[in-house]
Design brief:
Layout: H1 6-10, H2 29-38, E1 43-44, H3 55-63, E2 67-68, H4 73-80, H5 82-92, E3 99-100, H6 107-117, E4 121-125, E5 134-137, H7 143-158, E6 163-167, E7 172-181, E8 187-199, E9 202-207, H8 215-229, E10 236-246, E11 252-261, H9 268-272
Parallel strand pairs: 1-2
Antiparallel strand pairs: 3-6, 4-5, 4-6, 7-8, 7-10, 8-9, 10-11
Helix pairs in contact: 3-4
Length: 287
């Protein structure tokens, strides 16, 4: 699809990996690995989107003798499941929203758990992303229809209809923390971004520092992100996302873990303007 693009024309070497459809090119694991081997590449940088959070691709690169510039497959799998990630955060002491992320996915159990949490609640696809697989439910009478709709969308979009239930915060801020980890077990943060301005659960504007955070709150949320990333053999860049409760005056209160993106996000450039740091984690350097 981009064979006539400027970046292709400027490249020292370019390999056509398939047709214009993503499934024929940037989602074609075999074609990507073959292209890397043909050109004598040592590593594959997955960027963002497509296969950047695909554990099978990370494993396939490793098996082909290529360095996958990102976390290992196990870490991608662990944090790629919202329910597994939430249970892990609970065990680490990282704050999470009251909710249900268990294996019993019967509609009766999910309805019971929603009533226990208290309405309004949010139904979220366990494997969801990109703003899809999310339903906000204000009252019990609407729960069954919202659940079925969410499960259908999750099955069609992610081949996984499992969901979790979380308390919905009508007044909240979306704050995420950039983290980096090396092969020696060290994890650091590069501060936070505020991405509360959204449309249909898609971010429109990001800014850093996050306005309204006190110094103590900033320290707490960044330390929580480092704790979330530690001890899971994570390597490379990642983003830990939190939701923070606010009062009627917009003051920020408690914050809660939402999910982790196991890749470098598009919006990392916002923090690049704030922290000029260069890492070479795949060269074995320590942070």
């Amino acid at each position: 699809a981009d064979q006539h693009a400027m970046h292709v024309a400027l490249a020292d070497e370019a390999v056509r990996i398939g047709g214009p459809l993503p499934a024929e090119s940037y989602l074609n694991r075999e074609a990507l690995i073959t292209a890397a081997q043909r050109t004598g590449a040592q590593a594959v940088h997955p960027g963002y989107g497509f296969l950047s959070e695909n554990s099978d691709f990370a494993l396939a690169c490793e098996q082909a003798g290529l360095i996958f510039i990102g976390p290992p497959a196990k870490a991608i799998d662990l944090m790629g499941s919202k329910s597994a990630a939430k249970r892990l955060m609970d065990s680490k002491g990282v704050p999470t929203l009251p909710g249900y992320s268990g294996d019993d996915q019967s509609s009766s159990r999910l309805r019971t758990e929603a009533q226990r949490v208290g309405f309004p609640v949010m139904i979220k696809a366990v494997s969801g992303g990109g703003g899809r697989g999310i339903r906000i439910v204000e009252r019990i009478d609407d729960f069954d229809a919202a659940l079925q709709s969410c499960q259908r969308e999750a099955k069609a979009g992610f081949a996984d209809d499992r969901v979790l239930i979380e308390r919905y915060l009508p007044m909240a801020r979306h704050i995420e923390v950039q983290v980096f980890a090396d092969a020696h077990g060290s994890v650091v943060h590069l501060y936070e971004r505020d991405c509360s301005t959204q449309r249909r659960h898609q971010k429109l504007i990001e800014e850093s520092p996050a306005p309204g955070l006190t110094a103590a709150q900033r320290q707490s949320i960044c330390e929580a992100a480092v704790l979330a990333t530690s001890g899971i053999d994570y390597r490379g860049a990642g983003t830990v996302e939190f939701i923070a409760e606010t009062d009627a005056n917009g003051r920020i209160g408690e914050f809660y873990f939402m999910e982790m993106n196991t890749r470098l996000q598009v919006e990392h450039l916002v923090l690049k303007m704030r922290a000029v740091i260069f890492f070479r984690p795949r060269e074995g350097c320590s942070i």
